[in-house]
From TrEMBL:
Superkingdom per UniProt: Bacteria
Naturally occurring in which organism (per UniProt): Micromonospora sicca
Membrane spanning residue stretches: 12-33
The keyword Membrane appears for this protein: yes
Record key words, sorted: Membrane, Transmembrane, Transmembrane helix
Name of the featured protein: Secreted protein
The UniProt record lists the keyword Transmembrane: yes
Region of interest called Disordered, as start-end residue ranges on this chain: 39-67
Length: 307
């Protein structure tokens, strides 16, 4: 028997090994890539621990000393149930109109675990804003958390329609890293929805017998100081500290209900309270100022048009 033994020749074997190795490398690379997504570094942006990017000059900033990863300050937030690896999961979103109910939700991380560690920002670990989609019925609530990470808060949707709920929080990861996120979800109050038009733009408003006026003209794309003053009759109303400042401002964009970044200026500014507002682009916005006088919180609303 003179024939050679039946076995692949060396070059076929080498080719098989090379192809097999390539396939393995691609599979491994794909798997690792999914576990550890490479940071995007488009347009010179600096990668951050949270896996998203900040344009130069708008990097992560701090609340109370710890580094906090935040979205670009010029972007609106609250447009998604998931962002920066966190997901808002309400247990129910339908509420009978005008009936006292309870909103319950969790914040889940990338591994679908309920988050239980939150940083206290503006005196609270969780701020919940609820407003109907026509920007009426504004509520600013502070849910409480059960040990398993389930947040709950009494909630009444006062009129029929679709409402938007924003969970504004700073999550603390296992490694101690902090991520400031605002997630949003729709809630529904079934019934006939009769949307109301936005009130006309004004820099003065009245609420509960107080007159609230502000100075400052928001411009698209740059932080603008807005200075609010509250008066009762002829006298200035003495503002009290509320949520760690002399007032709390939320601004929402008409059209998509984007939630804007607002930062209170620390300290009291005479009898006024000042915020830095960054408006992402032209449009109409509704601002809500919560302020406290004599132990009671009041909310003034303002429509502002940004050209
Ligand atoms: Cu709050």
């Amino acid at each position: 028997m003179g024939g050679p033994p039946l076995r692949p020749d060396r070059s076929t074997l080498r080719l098989a090994l090379v192809v097999g190795g390539l396939v393995l490398a691609v599979l491994l690379g794909f798997g690792l890539g999914r576990l550890n997504p490479p940071p995007s570094t488009a347009s010179g942006a600096a990668p951050t621990a949270g896996g998203h990017t900040h344009p130069p000059g708008t990097g992560a900033h701090s609340h109370g000393g710890a580094a906090v990863d935040q979205g670009t300050a010029a972007d609106a937030a609250g447009l998604s149930v998931s962002a920066a690896g966190y997901t808002l999961t309400p247990s129910a979103v339908e509420f009978p109109v005008g009936r006292a109910g309870e909103l319950r939700f969790q914040i889940r991380d990338q591994r679908r675990r309920a988050v239980t560690r939150f940083a206290v920002v503006h005196d609270k670990p969780m701020h919940l804003i609820v407003v109907r989609r026509d920007l009426t019925g504004y509520q600013h609530l502070h849910p409480t958390m059960a040990p398993d990470g389930t947040w709950s808060v009494p909630l009444t949707l006062t009129e029929p329609g679709v409402w938007r709920a924003y969970a504004d929080f700073t999550a603390v990861a296992d490694d101690g890293g902090q991520t400031a996120v605002t997630l949003g979800t729709d809630l529904t109050a079934p019934g006939g929805y009769a949307p109301r038009p936005l009130p006309a733009p004004a820099t003065t408003g009245t609420v509960d017998g107080f007159t609230v006026a502000y100075e400052g003209t928001p411009k698209a794309g740059e932080p603008t100081p807005l200075r609010f003053r509250v008066s009762a009759g002829a006298a200035t109303a003495p503002l009290e500290r509320y949520l760690g400042a002399y007032g709390h401002l939320v601004a929402l964009r008409e059209g998509d209900l984007g939630y804007l970044h607002v930062h209170p200026q620390s300290g009291q500014d005479g009898d006024a309270v000042t915020f830095q507002l960054t408006v992402p682009g032209p449009g109409r916005y509704r601002m809500f100022l919560d302020f406290q006088v004599a132990g009671v919180v009041h909310t003034a609303g303002f429509t502002v048009t940004v050209p």
